[in-house]
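The record is given unchanged here:
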Amino acid sequence: MVDARDSRPRPSVRRVGDNLRNVISNARVAWYAIVSGANDYWAIFTLKSWIFGWCVRMISQVSFFALIGKLLRSDAQTQFLLIGNAVVIAAAASTFAMFMTTSERGNGTLSLLLASPSRPVVVFAARGVYVMADGVFSSLLGLFILGPAFGLHFPFPRVLLVIPLTLLVGASAYCFSTFLAGVILRYREITGLVVNATIVTLMALCGVNVPVSFYPTWLEWISRCLPITNGLEAIRDVIDGAAWSTIAAHTGAELLVASVWLSLALTTFGIFMRAGQRDGSLEYAS
């Protein structure tokens, strides 16, 4: 028999189904966060403002770099620049997820998220999914509209693989962005600077405008650990008609990179948040 006066702590016993309940709970929280983010998106854009604002800007940006290839009188350079700058739209839009922490603070909901029993990283990671979806759609739109205009041939049906590969690039960049959002959580005044610096860095290092083989070996290895690089090469391989083994290798590398950045985000986000609570650097409202 157990002595009622024995105050020693008892080891916690996990009941059957606890893991399943946690998964269902996190999935429900993520779904509501996605819906909330989507509502924010439709409050920002109308169809007209999206077409004549964002879409025209995106098409102009990709066209600008493709025209550089035309000025060089090189079809290969034109296609290289067009594909790279179209695909990077997906990653650049995903990087805007770093603004999610700033918006939660501005809306006064950050303190509520911290007090809730769910993990804040689940909310932050799910709430900005709409920016990734918008970026992937815009990227594909730019590629398939401007490609034929600049003489880019799309081999059918293998070109259909470009769609999931672009989604993979966007998801990989989104995982990277979620990790950085945790890092800068306590430093809201530099959020815009970090977002723009990240986009420029990815465009410079990830083979968007310059092949990574041109870089020193150590810098090439760094680029391989960043989102975009491997997935973009897989997309180029699909369009260029490369061997399936080469496409699979680059796709697998991009999946690995995305998994690592996602694991880092899930592991460290709560740590950064608790550190901000302890030292008082985490502001709950703007």
Remarks:
- DSSP finds twelve helices and no strands in the chain.
- The radius of gyration is 22 Å.
- Residues 25-279 form one domain.
